[in-house]
Amino acid sequence: MDWAKFDRDAGSIQAGAHQGLGHKSLLQSDDLYQYILETSVYPREPEPMKELREMTAKHPWNTMTTSADENQFLNMLLKLINAKKTMEIGVYTGYSLLATALALPQDGKILAMDVNRENYELGLPIIEKAGVAHKIDFKEGPALPVLDQLIEDDKNHGTFDFIFVDADKNNYLNYHKRLIELVKVGGLIGYDNTLWNGSVAAPANAPLPEYLIYYRQFVLEVNKALAVDPRIEICMLSVGDGITLCRRIK
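-> structure tokens emitted (250 positions)
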């Protein structure tokens, strides 16, 4: 695949905001989304989150990041469930990772995985300045081998309070097969981008950018699988680009 072209397509859509599919918010009004940000998110945004958000916005791959309102939601969710041990697959510059780290207690731990350490290190100075870098165990490389290694040890089963996945959509089902063993009963897995810029509801022949078309079928498949998985309760939220929360019940 021509990933550079994917990035250009994503960037051009982002610039067009609600003129087409692809905006980080699925709201139909830019003014309404801006109202949410200016009323609820930005006034309470910790300074490190603001700094990392603004830095990430200047990166050429900025459409890969989570939205500010989604990170506010994740931060509150983690506090509500008293999460202490978490995992994040797909880190990018660490924007959502910082939101998680700020929500965890001082002895909280995050296993963070990404194939690109360089992007993570862009945000690392801000994470360190925020005083939460000690909570993060970053591993560079594909996540599946790490998950398989964790599963080999029964002591890791059912030990994670929360797991956030914002990575290669074609592996979401492979992740789920493993993560369901690692998250505790009553714990949560959050799959990001499950509305995939709104394209999941678009006609099959809709004129979409290549990067949306390529991953849409994978997103549709994981949405279908999660909806019928008897081991979880689910809630699909239209926050950011869509996030599906899965609560393990058995």
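DSSP finds nine helices and seven strands in the chain.
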